[in-house]
């Protein structure tokens, strides 16, 4: 084997860079879930009545559901009554400026390398920082407001733009969609709302830094992005979490709506705590992400780099409803230690001449389990729809696993679907070539793996591409000792 | 009233109250009883079962299939002339509704060390030779129907080849099914055992006359010893109303080679499950398949290839053509177990849709637990290339003829893997006939 076992050990033992706990007083509910909890969440947030009713309907539906077991992941049973469904940083008063924000929180972001205070000096990234469950700081509001872009927390949007929220929330991922979506719809704490008006090109990349804090608090973000006709928005989502011993549940829902000629680019770098070498601790990341290309010629692109979490269960999907709409999915998923990832996408082609591209790169090391699960469906009226799927898996070490489960359903003869998948380890010849030119084994592996992921990285916005490559090389540092 | 259970109840009754009494062979009766008990435990598959996600069992609900009664002694050799291959040779073994029909068969002379005949006779004459192989624990996939078959094991083809024996000529078996007064269920059980170093070619054909309604629920077990080589060529040309459910399981010992070419061109509803297990290092397999789903027909293929040991290679290539409201399902799974290093596995499925209303559901899966492997899979679904059509049309070829040429060209990649020329010709002729029918 090219990558020695001592190197593997180093990979497995590689510590988690972002493992620290910041000490903030949290306003946390006692564990448990019932109608009262849901009503309380809604009341704390001073939500309109329709939202409360939707939450209750979701809860009632959730109570009838069983946890799904089809994904190729294994974990101890989750006790949903042992989770606290709300945790907010201690409310002082609505923060008016950065000075009013808990210095602990600011320190946390600084440790994570988000230069919140220097935002304005930095090139065009507005950060809506979610600390646990409540948005505590939003910047660049003015500049966005000028363009007419609404970028705020969901709670705020519910108060200030209830019509928009009511119109779109749950229209892509209804609460009946699946077990975790139902749970999220009942108890979602906070999240991000973006609305880009017709014809507007959002003047900057939007970004939210999520961070899970406070032990035993599942975090249930809800993100809703609406790009009105002819608009464009690029949204960046990045995640880290402090080191914990108990598994933390994370069940987010992300909904994207692209109207005619609109374009949404959604990028994620996910680096939550993956658990220790024995797989203890770590985040359970059960996410429902879906985009609806509602209008003709609309376009939704998902790019994700998944390196963290103990378990990732995530299928960012596109419903290509509009004629000539385009869906894209670019993914790099790395599992090491005892991490498990069951991830992929769904491309539902309904519109004529709709096109989709799927590029999925899975890297498994140590005892990592990596599965691609994808669906491409060509409905009967999807004339001349096209899909190309490429799934590649790279294996590092003889105890890891890589699986591919593509589902392809075609009901239109003019549709064209191509699916390719390969699985192999790093080629001895490639390694030998690099080594013979004086590269260290570590550099050689890093170069080969970066080359393997290049197709995906090039889809990331500049800000994220740097972070993604850094993240990958940190992971690989361990992998090759 | 539990309507869902109805067909299953009928099958259970069939298994419990067999027309065939106990065989008197202790181990076999035990295995049959176990299978009947398994049938009692299993439930009727629904679309929620992953293996039946795309395959509806609804059409199987209504017909009341009765077990095939006595051998069809009324059939005369000239009756099956239309079913012979172009070389005019009468098959070595002919089965009518699952039972051996000696009057129709023409077993060729075989070298010493080869035992060929009906399973019923093998059970009478040399049960001990079958004990290690027939219905061993672990039924093939589709366990419900395999259990039904096992619970009623009675007859089928048996081919036992002793160590180092090489059979040059292909052995041909014809399974003829017919509706007699009422729809029948035929359940051939075939056992092919090649000892170390043995070599054989086996041709299996499934055919009928006219629009007979019947259910052919068959199981074939293949056991290859060290270094054995089996070429297995199958052509399913059942009647257009028939149900055909084939379970095939093969166990490959070290350095053995198995090449299976299978063409599913007939029946209203068919499902073929191929289960392959590598049990010794250095073995090789190749599975090639061709299917045609005409208007209103369903053709389903399930592959389950398990690389349990290192150093084996497998290659699976399946191609299908769909017309009218035809539905094709392909579910290919390749599993590479932990430590099965130096595995090579390549799975490919291509589909050609000729009509607006056809449907393809394909699911090629790789499950890999070792790292030193070379595995890939690929799938395509598309229609005829307009450029190719234009090219042929511009040379004065009529549209139907051009379409036929391109489809046969598409099928050719699989057809040419048939080593037995008369079989290949027949398969090609059937495809041409199918393509000539007006599509829905």
Quick synopsis:
The complex is a heterodimer of chains A (481) and B (440). By secondary structure, chain A is an alpha/beta fold. Helix content of chain A is 25%, strand content 34%.
Report on the structure:
Chain A is of the alpha/beta class and 481 residues long. Chain A has helices at residues 5-13, 35-44, 49-63, 103-112, 141-147, 154-160, 162-168, 179-187, 428-436, 441-457, 462-479; strands at residues 26-28, 87-89, 125-131, 134-138, 150-153, 192-196, 205-211, 222-227, 232-240, 248-250, 253-258, 263-271, 283-293, 299-306, 311-314, 317-320, 326-335, 340-343, 346-349, 355-365, 369-378, 386-396, 401-410, 416-425. In chain A, the strands form three sheets. In chain A, strands 4-3-7-9-12-14-17-20-22-24 form a ten-stranded mixed beta sheet. A six-stranded parallel beta barrel of chain A has the order 13-15-18-21-19-16. In chain A, strand 3 and strand 4 form a beta hairpin. The two termini of chain A are 14 Å apart. Chain B has 440 residues and is an alpha/beta fold. Chain B has one domain. Chain B is 20% helix and 37% strand. Chain B is built from eight helices and 21 strands. In chain B, strand 2 (93-96) and strand 3 (99-100) form a beta hairpin. In chain B, helix 2 (26-41) runs antiparallel to helix 5 (143-151), helix 6 crosses helix 7 and helix 7 runs antiparallel to helix 8. Strand 23 of chain A pairs antiparallel with strand 20 of chain B, so a sheet runs across the interface.
